[in-house]
Amino acid sequence: MLSLGSYLKREREYRAISLDEMARATRIPVTKLTALEADDFDNLPGVAITKGFLKAYSQHAGLDEMEVMYRFDDFLKERNIDVRTSFNKLKPVMTRGRSALLVTVLGIVILMLVFYLSVR
């Protein structure tokens, strides 16, 4: 039996759908599509988001969505992957957002201090 990624790639190519077309239609970045088709799950987000990718991919390619999900579930079971975890547990999720928030708060505090000192 083909791996999930090999199956997806074979079916996409059989239907003459390019990666760029798949990316445009599904709004999944080409890098993530390439990772899916290469079974490179370390470069994909968590299980739930990957299932969303697979659903969109299946719908656009005209694949049986349940077949794709069964294959993905088999993959998870073979590797004892908990569906509540991310594939890459070490990646921080929102580092940029936290940094931006910190800079914004510090900026506001400094502006308030300058305003307070200038009014006195």
Describe it for me?
The protein is mainly α and 120 residues long. It has 2 domains: 75 residues, 434 Repressor (Amino-terminal Domain), CATH 1.10.260; 30 residues. The chain is built from 6 helices and no strands. Helix 4 packs antiparallel against helix 5. About 4% of the residues have low confidence.
What is this structure's SSE topology?
Blueprint: H1 4-14, H2 19-26, H3 30-37, H4 47-61, H5 65-78, H6 95-119
Helix pairs in contact: 4-5
Keywords:
120 residues, mainly alpha, 434 Repressor (Amino-terminal Domain), 2 domains, 6 helices, elongated
For this structure, the CATH topology of the largest domain is 434 Repressor (Amino-terminal Domain)
Beta-strand percentage range: under 5%
Globular, elongated, flat, extended or rod-shaped: what is the shape? elongated
Distance between the termini: 77 Å
Identify the CATH class of the largest domain: Mainly Alpha
Mean pLDDT: 86
Secondary structural class: mainly alpha
Q: Label the CATH architecture of the largest domain.
A: Orthogonal Bundle
Give the tally of β-strands. 0
Domain count: 2
Low-confidence stretches: 90-94
Biggest sheet overview: none
One letter per element, helices H and strands E, the order comes to HHHHHH
Task: Offer a concise description of the structure.
68% of the residues lie in helices and 0% in strands.
